[in-house]
Inverse folding.
């Protein structure tokens, strides 16, 4: 506090956002406590869920600013960027060369912006034992949910159905310097001092220039969650007050769909944009949210969160270079020397794979054993052993990505499993057996449950029965007509909600994951769109009778029923017993 009081010119709280307008637009938002918290943050500055003294050995002042700059160009960029930040009112005037009491400084790095030759200034707040990110409560900064393509695609399909035969356009609006619109509290400004003019020597600091960073920055663990809170409320205003119901947002990019003949002139940039795009830009102008012309784009095919999306062909494509980078990274991760990676490396990998699931949604089971291994671990740089299950899952993921076209067809995802399936199967299981019924063909199948470690796990047998039915459907060549563009539609009913859940989410604990992987292999190989749907036990009587080997009961319910046996995939049982 003494440093702040004695150097008031080094500390300042401000934001370009018009706080009064922002608050007034949120007057009817149902979560009043959340709105009040965000408005207060904009007024007094963000406190990033931090404890500045998490252990007794944290020093009062810590200078960890030195890091070898890779190139003269990057050193010059950092120095120039600091001066620019002062001009923008986001950094304090320069001081130095030494830190004042209570201050922390960590290395700055120049990072290329995605799909650009431009650089971005990033504060490495994870560098060193006493780094700022070690003060931030990690559990409080998790959970910001972004609108992926898996959120946008159903909206796109709905918009298309409302405008049949119309040519569609996509649009994207980008906020300029999103994190930098959020002020941080002066007590936290003390902890994020930026240093430039760092030379080759760690000890000679005569040329070092220091700047107090007044805003949320790249490199802080808290910045994404803080920005998501602000932008989430802005999006709420757009959706609920301006009725922009097809709007999605991914960090600082808002995107949506419109009609080719629905354009409006936007005076500040002197050009036409889609009408809803203009309405959003005008909202941002009214709220004081900055943006620039070159980042406001529209077209028939547009890059949305790194994927080429075509709303008329109804496809999303992973570019070839991104696909190659993904495969290479996964392979290198799985084949690292000594088979150990840090928790930070695990988190980077899962982030990258989760991003790719926008076009590879069936490959979610690749993460089951990885998440199980990460569970309960908090030390970012502690090594974690890659067990056999993780290596196998990553090899499975890599193989499927390598073989894929990188194109996701979503035009046929919107179908009714109750009325539009090519075939319907009913499944059930008991602790003594499994059974499934194919009404269209008057066929029933049974399988006794053998002695097994999973014998008393009814959930396992219910899931395995669904897989058995899927295997039968593929082997019977009933999906012979299917293509990636027009897959076969298979509905399987079960009265076990856990089974419905794992096949719907494609996420399961490691014991059940081999079932999902085997099902995905079949779905990809034979172009089958599978929906597993819940049915009450009272309506699942035929499959129930088959699972209990009550064959006479099953035949009394379906007089022409032909009953045979089936065997579940041996690979799945073997993997489960390991």
């Amino acid at each position: 506090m003494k440093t702040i009081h004695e150097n008031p010119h080094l500390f300042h709280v401000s934001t370009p956002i018009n706080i009064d307008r922002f608050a007034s637009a949120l007057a009817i938002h149902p979560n009043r406590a959340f709105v009040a918290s965000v408005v207060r943050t904009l007024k007094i500055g963000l406190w990033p869920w931090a404890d500045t003294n998490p252990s007794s050995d944290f020093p009062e002042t810590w200078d960890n600013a030195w890091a070898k700059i890779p190139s003269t160009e990057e050193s010059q960029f950092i120095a120039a960027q600091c001066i620019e930040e002062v001009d923008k009112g986001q950094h304090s005037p320069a001081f130095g060369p030494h830190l004042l009491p209570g201050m922390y400084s960590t290395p700055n790095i120049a990072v290329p912006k995605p799909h650009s030759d431009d650089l971005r200034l990033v504060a490495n707040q994870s560098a060193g034992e006493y780094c700022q990110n070690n003060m931030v409560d990690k559990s409080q900064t998790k959970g910001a949910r972004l609108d992926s393509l898996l959120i946008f695609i159903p909206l796109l399909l709905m918009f298309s159905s409302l405008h049949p035969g119309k040519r569609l356009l996509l649009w994207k609006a980008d906020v300029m310097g999103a994190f930098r619109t959020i002020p941080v509290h002066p007590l936290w400004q003390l902890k994020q001092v930026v240093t430039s003019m760092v030379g080759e020597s760690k000890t000679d600091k005569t040329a070092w220039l220091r700047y107090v960073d007044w805003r949320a920055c790249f490199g802080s663990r808290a910045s994404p969650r803080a920005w998501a809170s602000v932008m989430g409320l802005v999006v709420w205003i757009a959706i609920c007050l301006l009725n922009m119901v097809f709007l999605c947002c991914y960090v600082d990019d808002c995107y949506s769909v419109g009609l080719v003949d629905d354009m409006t002139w936007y005076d500040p940039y002197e050009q036409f944009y889609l009408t809803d795009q203009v309405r959003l830009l005008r909202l941002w102008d009214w709220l004081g949210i900055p943006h620039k012309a070159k980042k406001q784009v529209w077209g028939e095919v547009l890059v949305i969160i790194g994927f080429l999306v075509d709303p008329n062909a109804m496809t999303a494509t992973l570019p070839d270079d991104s696909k190659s980078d993904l495969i290479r990274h996964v392979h290198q991760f799985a084949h690292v020397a000594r088979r150990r990676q840090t928790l930070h490396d695990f988190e980077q990998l899962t982030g990258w794979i989760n991003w790719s699931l926008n076009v590879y949604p069936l490959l979610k089971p690749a993460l089951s054993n990885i998440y199980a291994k990460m569970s309960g671990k908090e030390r970012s740089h502690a090594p974690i052993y890659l067990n056999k299950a993780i290596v196998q899952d990553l090899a499975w993921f890599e193989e499927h990505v390598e073989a894929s076209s990188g194109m996701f067809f979503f035009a046929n995802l919107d179908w009714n499993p109750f009325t539009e399936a090519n075939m319907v199967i009913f499944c059930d299981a008991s602790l003594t057996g499994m059974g499934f019924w194919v009404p269209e063909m008057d066929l029933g199948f049974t399988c006794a449950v053998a002695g097994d470690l999973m014998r008393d796990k009814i959930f396992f047998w219910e899931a395995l029965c669904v897989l058995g039915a899927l295997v039968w459907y593929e082997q019977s060549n009933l999906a012979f007509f299917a293509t990636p563009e027009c897959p076969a539609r298979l509905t399987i009913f079960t009265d076990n909600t856990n089974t419905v859940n794992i096949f719907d989410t494609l996420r399961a604990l490691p014991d059940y994951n081999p079932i999902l992987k085997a099902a995905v292999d079949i779905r990809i190989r034979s172009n089958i769109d599978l929906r597993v749907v819940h049915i009450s036990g009272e309506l699942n009587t035929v499959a129930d009778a088959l699972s209990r080997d009550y064959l006479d009961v099953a035949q009394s319910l379906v007089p022409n029923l032909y009953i045979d046996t089936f065997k579940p995939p041996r690979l799945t049982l073997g993997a489960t017993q390991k």
Notes: The two ends are 59 Å apart (CA to CA). Residues 572-578 have pLDDT under 50 and may be disordered. The CA atoms of residues 425 and 492 lie 5 Å apart.
